[in-house]
From TrEMBL:
Signal peptide: none annotated. This is Probable malate:quinone oxidoreductase. It comes from Comamonas endophytica. It catalyses: (S)-malate + a quinone = a quinol + oxaloacetate. It is an enzyme of class 1 (oxidoreductase). Its cofactor is FAD.
């Protein structure tokens, strides 16, 4: 018996040592090749998705002589989350996403988030319009198409919620033109597949916004990349993976990259590094060793969709219909049935269904999550996990879904659907942020966040949503944070040529809304609805009214300020 005790104690001691080594690994930095360039390049971008390419496009326009290098581990750009098949393609403008407009305890509807997202998407439209004008983006219908956005609910309580949401949002110039109906015949005209075969006694309601869009972010990324490559100061190197990030005493970064074709490594000096590698950004940020990285961890969640490729169905469904998440479900569970244009063909997707994976990228490693756990974040990850058991329960339920279960969910939105009409596809990976807030402690966040060091020499974009739809405004924020001197010295003036509304709130003026939307609608071939100048009065009155404190919400460790679906 004593022998077994000794063996047991020895085993526990060994496991403890292994655990400490795991959490503190590596205990020393391995040697890397010396830098090949004496004069640093100006910017190194890590990851070939829409975020890095958007930032590079801004930089090239603002200062064409900047030396910029981009490293992508796959054999092309836009092959992860930016790829058209790996995201929902919604031009997120808050027209239909009910998560952006929660009902407060007093029964009122919060619209601040929705208006903020709508403002951001207007910036995206301006940025893309400018790129069309400059010839970096081609025919707009290749990447953005008019696709009305609908919200659809059933049940008395939800019908009343949607009515109040419509009344609250329609006071704003950016939401002018939205329609509301409880008439099944009207809703059937908007979305026939949603209504055909539905119980006529079921109480339903919908909002319809004709200004919605479907966007192929993969096409945007590829076309902007080709535009960047016309300038010899921009270099794209695919199948190159960043394996080390070291900062010298001179604040210059040494970026070590591995050529995945031949296995060789080399090091490049750079004055500034942007980590826009999607889910992998968490690990790369940790690799940098900056103190700010200690506050973050990541939680990966994948997504799956049901894809309908039959032309007959795609021809009958030409809207994006967003529903409401089941009570107690997390924001990522919001169901939607979307009209898409992918590979130059109309497609309908329904989902998402969550897919738990320990990968941080679709083409990543099963060890990604484990290798991101350190002594700095393990406590926060455990605490967040224990306080978000509803999310854990939801993912466990999703993992057990069968095709019959998925079809049952589909029937709620497409009552006449047949099992043989769809196939299950796997979309991209999303990594939600776990952040150690100095005041509130560890929190789970579903939005995006820019992390920079105190010297403004490195920045990383963490999180998943609203993501690609708002990449231009997100990168504008990054420019302001990371390049404050350059912005003050002339970049801000140049940015007004790219984003005419820069520095102004579009929603505060019906006239400005009309001005900006007229420009972008003409440039992008999108529908346009002129806002009566009188609509400005309601918005202005609402803005001028004394602020009424909202009832306090229950304390939560979920700092999801975006409330966006996966």
């Amino acid at each position: 018996m004593r022998k077994f005790k000794i063996w047991g104690i020895s085993l526990l001691a060994l496991l403890a040592i292994v655990g400490v080594l795991f959490l503190y690994w590596p205990l020393h930095q391995r040697s890397v090749p010396a830098a090949e360039n004496d004069k640093p390049v100006d910017v190194v971008l890590v990851g070939g998705g829409i975020m890095s390419i958007t930032l590079a496009t801004y930089l090239q326009e603002l200062q064409p002589d900047l030396k910029v290098q981009l490293f992508e581990r796959l054999d092309g750009v836009a092959l992860e989350s930016s790829n058209g098949w790996n995201n929902a393609g919604t031009g997120h403008s808050a027209f239909a996403e009910l998560n952006y407009t929660p009902e407060l305890p007093d029964g009122s509807i919060e619209t601040k988030r929705a208006v903020g997202i709508a403002e951001q998407f207007e910036i995206s439209r301006q940025f893309w319009s400018h790129q069309v004008k400059e010839g970096r983006l081609s025919q707009p219908s290749d990447f953005i198409n008019p696709t009305p956005h609908m919200s659809f609910v059933w049940g008395e309580d939800r019908v009343e919620y949607l009515r109040k949401r419509y009344e609250a949002l329609s006071r704003n110039p950016l939401f002018y033109g939205m329609q509301f109906s409880t008439d099944p015949a009207q809703i059937k005209q908007w979305a026939p597949l949603v209504m055909e075969g539905r119980d006529p006694a079921q109480k339903v309601a919908a909002t319809y916004m004709p200004l919605g869009t479907d966007v192929n972010f993969g096409v945007i990324t590829n076309q902007l990349t080709r535009g960047l490559q016309r300038n010899p100061n921009f270099q794209l190197q695919v199948q190159h993976e960043v394996t080390a990030l070291r900062q010298g005493d001179d604040k210059i970064w040494n970026v070590t990259v591995k050529d995945l074709k031949n296995g060789t490594e080399r090091t490049v000096k750079s004055r500034f590094v942007f980590i826009g590698a999607g889910g992998a950004a968490v690990k790369l940020l940790q690799m940098s060793g900056i103190p700010e990285a200690k506050n973050y961890a990541g939680f990966p969640v994948g997504g799956q969709f049901l894809a309908f490729k039959a032309p007959a169905l795609a021809e009958r469904h030409k809207v994006k219909v967003y529903g409401m998440a089941e009570t107690g479900s997390p924001p990522m569970s919001v169901p939607h049935i979307d009209a898409r244009k992918l590979d130059d063909k109309p497609v309908v997707l329904f989902g998402p269904f969550a897919l738990f994976s320990t990968k941080f990228l679709k083409e990543g490693s099963w060890f990604d999550l484990f290798s991101s756990v350190t002594h700095d974040n393990v406590g926060g990850m455990l605490k967040v996990g224990s306080e978000n058991l509803d999310l854990v329960k939801y993912l466990m339920q999703q993992a057990k879904l069968t095709d019959e279960d998925r079809h049952a969910e589909l029937l709620k939105y497409y009552p006449n659907a047949k099992r043989e009409d769809w196939e299950l596809i796997t979309a991209g990976q999303r990594v939600q942020i776990i952040k150690n807030d100095p005041e509130k402690g560890p929190l789970l966040q579903f939005g995006t966040e820019i992390v920079t060091d105190k010297d403004k020499t490195i920045a990383a974009l963490l999180g998943a949503s609203p993501g690609a739809s708002t990449s231009p405004p997100i990168m504008l924020n990054l420019l302001a944070q990371a390049f404050p001197q350059e912005m003050a010295a002339g970049w801000e003036t140049k940015l007004k040529d790219i984003v005419p509304s820069y520095g102004r709130k579009i929603n505060e003026s019906a006239a400005l809304t009309n001005e900006i939307r007229t420009q972008t609608s003409q440039a992008l071939g999108l529908p346009y609805i002129e806002v009566p100048v009188g609509a400005q009065g309601a918005a202005a009155a609402a803005a001028a009214a004394p602020a009424t404190p909202s009832p306090a919400a229950p304390a939560s460790r979920n700092a999801n300020t975006e409330m966006q679906a996966l």
